[in-house]
Specification:
By secondary structure, the chain is of the alpha+beta class. It is built from four helices and five strands; from the N terminus they run H-E-H-E-H-H-E-E-E. The strands form two sheets. Strands 3-4-5 form a three-stranded antiparallel sheet, with no helix packed on it. Strands 1-2 form a two-stranded antiparallel sheet. It is globular, with a radius of gyration of 13 Å.
Length: about 120
């Protein structure tokens, strides 16, 4: 299996402000999580920025572990994307708001700021 390129890794980390998008922690122990799991989709689609989010921990620890421990909640929050869904059209709940990720390392903020008041 191929690795995420340095260019894509840097785009995702910058977009996510170098913190775990779930808990907001930065520093050591950050990893990239594939929203549509690596066994789903083509090799080319697997490592696109829309399919990756920055999380703390490994697949069994931290927020990364929580994603895999509770798939139902993770699908509902967009942290995981079903094999038949497109990460480009599936919003993700983050500590920065509800976002629609693109493949250029950007996002559209879908957060309803009125609901935060």
């Amino acid at each position: 299996m191929s690795e995420v390129s340095k260019r894509v890794r840097d785009l995702v980390l910058e977009r996510d402000r170098h913190v775990c998008v779930i808990c907001g922690r930065g520093g050591e122990g950050l990893n990239l999580h594939h929203r549509r799991l690596r066994q789903h989709g083509s090799e080319a689609e697997r490592h696109l920025p829309s399919n990756l989010i920055t999380v703390c921990g490994s697949g069994t620890t931290g927020c990364h572990g929580e994603i895999h421990a509770d798939p139902r909640a993770s699908y509902a929050r967009g942290w995981m994307v079903h094999s038949y869904s497109d990460p480009l059209t599936t919003p993700v709940d983050t500590c920065h708001g509800r976002l629609l990720l693109d493949d250029e390392g950007g996002f559209t903020d879908l957060t309803d700021r009125r609901a935060l008041v």
